[in-house]
From TrEMBL:
GO terms for molecular function: aralkylamine N-acetyltransferase activity. Residues 1-38 have a biased composition (Polar residues). It comes from the Eukaryota. This is N-acetyltransferase domain-containing protein. Gene3D superfamilies: 3.40.630.30. Residues 152-291 form the N-acetyltransferase domain. Signal peptide: none annotated. PROSITE patterns: GNAT (PS51186). One of its GO terms (cellular component) is cytoplasm. Residues 1-39 are annotated as: Disordered. Keywords: Acyltransferase, Transferase. InterPro entries: Acyl_CoA_acyltransferase, GNAT_dom, SNAT-like.
Length: 294
């Protein structure tokens, strides 16, 4: 079940090899630096392919930062020491909405139950995982669940705030190749019994099962559309593959989300028999096989 509406510092040469002075002296001799007749400066700028204005500064520097495609201007190696550092462009990183969250991922535990309940509210009520199921799953197999958190950057003098859970993936193991209603159920006496069976069929988490059954991929509504879900799922798949602990990952999703999962390598296996939340699900499976991680 899922929910996604998703240089090091430089120094100037000690001797006057280029006819240029450090930036600190720029105000004293700015006119000579900007002189188009300065042969050394003209040679360097010509090799760098930079046009000069009457004032002597690169035209590119007058453009809007958002329109700059390259991080810095390429310079011939022999001119590197002569090239004034104040003509260098600092690396440009186009920040995304995800960057603004200062996100990090980590495994979940029972201490995160209330956080998960809050995130799960992104689903219609009939499709939400219950608090009891969170307690069960995060107690029995917490290593199969992952959360993406946000932690704001604050002044060092202030106390460190508690990280906020933005999205989660909750899962268990099953011996079936697909997610089933039995795999999604909460065993009645799970705290006393390690295994639960009904009609000789396992219920809930099956230790040793070859399929990781994802029961919830949810993102807080106010953070949907920020690539939280895709970042979380990509990280989860990588971790499961790297650990080599399962044959496949399975999930059920509504039809409109099938393309999203297919973009991560999941294959549609047709309509699901699961009636959880009223049914209407599609089976999706990512076969892990014996692929090696890069």
């Amino acid at each position: 079940m899922s929910d996604l509406n998703d240089q090091p510092s430089e120094s100037m040469a000690g001797s006057d090899t280029s006819g240029l002075k450090p930036l600190s002296n720029a105000n004293d001799d700015l006119q000579s630096i900007g002189n188009p007749g300065n042969s050394d400066l003209a040679r360097i700028m010509n090799r760098a392919g930079i046009a000069m204005t009457n004032g002597g500064f690169p035209l590119d520097d007058l453009e809007d930062e958002d329109e700059v495609d390259e991080d810095y201007v390429a310079v011939d190696q022999e001119d590197a020491n002569d090239y004034p550092y104040w003509f260098r462009r600092p690396p440009t990183h186009h920040r995304t909405k995800l960057d603004e969250l200062h996100p990090f991922v980590q495994l979940l535990s029972v201490s995160n139950v209330e956080d998960c309940v809050q995130v799960e509210n992104a689903f219609p009520e009939a499709e939400r995982c219950s608090r009891d199921k969170f307690i069960y799953r995060l107690t029995r197999c917490p290593e199969l669940s992952l959360g993406l958190f946000t932690l704001p950057v604050i002044d060092e003098s202030k106390p460190k705030p508690r990280a906020t859970l933005v999205g989660h993936i909750i899962a268990t193991r099953t011996s079936e190749p697909l997610v089933t209603d039995r795999a999604m159920r909460l065993p009645e006496d799970w705290q006393a019994e390690r295994w639960a069976f009904e009609d000789n069929q396992a219920v809930g988490h099956e230790e040793g099962g070859g399929t990781i059954a994802i029961h919830s991929l949810a993102v807080l509504p106010e953070h949907q559309g920020k690539q939280v879900g895709s970042t979380l799922l990509k990280s989860y798949i990588h971790r499961i593959r790297e650990a080599q602990i399962a044959d496949r990952i399975a999930i059920i999703a509504h039809e409109h989300l099938v393309p999203f999962y297919e973009s991560f390598g999941f294959e549609s296996r047709g309509p699901s028999k699961c009636q959880f939340g009223g049914g209407g699900w599609v089976n999706l499976v990512l076969e892990l096989g014996n692929e090696e991680t890069s």
